[in-house]
C-alpha cells in the first residue's frame, strides 16, 4: 500500500537561482505538506552515498559533483499517494520531456540540472528522508 510521505531536494542550481520559495509554493499548492525542511551542503562523499544506487551509471561522477557544488534544500513531504503524485508534479527527468505545469518544466535547465529530486518508491522515500532527518525532526 502506498504511504503518504515522499522525500525531495531542491538541487544546487535552483537554490543558487533563488527559487526555493517558488518551488516550495508549487509543492504546497500541489497538496503537499512540509514535514521536514533543511538547507544544507552535501560533501562529495555524502552525495556519493545518497546516489550510491547510481554508482554504475555513466553520469554518476558528474551527478555527485553537481549535487555537492552548492547548498541544497532537503524536505520530507506528506500527501495521500505521495510518491506517485510527487513524481507527476515534478515531471520527467529530462526537462525537454517534462509536461507543462511541472516543476522541472518551469525550473530545470538540463537532464542533470533538473531542479528537484523526488523519491521513486515508498521504500526509498523512507531511506532518503532518514538520511537527512532524525525522527524528532519529522512532524
Ligand atoms: P530521477 O531524478 O528523475 O528519478 P534518475 O534516473 O534517478 O532520475 O537520475 C538521478 C539524477 O541523475 C537525475 O535527477 C539527474 O540529475 C541525473 N541524471 C539522470 N540521467 C542523467 C543523464 O543521462 N545525464 C546526466 N545526468 C543525469
Automatic annotation (TrEMBL):
Keywords: ATP-binding, Cytoplasm, Kinase, Magnesium, Metal-binding, Nucleotide metabolism, Nucleotide-binding, Phosphoprotein, Transferase. It holds the Pfam family NDK. It is found in: Cytoplasm. It catalyses: a 2'-deoxyribonucleoside 5'-diphosphate + ATP = a 2'-deoxyribonucleoside 5'-triphosphate + ADP; a ribonucleoside 5'-diphosphate + ATP = a ribonucleoside 5'-triphosphate + ADP. One of its GO terms (molecular function) is nucleoside diphosphate kinase activity. Residues 3-137 form the Nucleoside diphosphate kinase-like domain. Its main location: cytoplasm. ATP binds at residues 11, 59, 87, 93, 104, 114. Its EC number is 2.7.4.6. The active site is at 117 (pros-phosphohistidine intermediate). Major role in the synthesis of nucleoside triphosphates other than ATP. The ATP gamma phosphate is transferred to the NDP beta phosphate via a ping-pong mechanism, using a phosphorylated active-site intermediate. Belongs to the NDK family. This is Nucleoside diphosphate kinase. It comes from Adhaeribacter terrigena. The gene is ndk.
Amino acid at each position: 500500500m502506498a504511504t503518504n510521505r515522499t522525500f525531495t531536494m531542491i538541487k544546487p542550481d535552483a537554490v543558487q537561482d533563488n527559487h526555493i520559495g517558488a518551488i516550495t509554493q508549487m509543492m504546497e499548492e500541489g497538496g503537499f505538506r512540509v514535514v521536514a525542511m533543511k538547507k544544507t551542503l552535501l560533501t562529495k562523499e555524502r552525495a556519493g552515498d545518497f546516489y550510491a544506487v547510481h554508482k554504475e551509471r555513466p553520469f554518476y561522477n558528474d551527478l555527485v559533483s553537481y549535487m555537492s557544488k552548492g547548498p541544497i534544500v532537503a524536505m520530507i513531504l506528506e500527501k495521500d499517494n505521495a510518491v506517485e503524485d510527487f513524481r507527476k508534479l515534478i515531471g520527467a527527468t529530462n526537462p525537454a520531456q517534462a509536461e507543462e505545469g511541472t516543476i522541472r518544466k518551469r525550473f530545470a535547465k538540463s537532464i542533470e540540472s533538473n531542479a528537484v529530486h523526488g523519491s521513486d518508491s515508498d521504500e526509498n522515500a523512507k531511506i532518503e528522508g532518514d538520511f537527512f532527518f532524525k525522527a524528532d525532526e519529522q512532524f
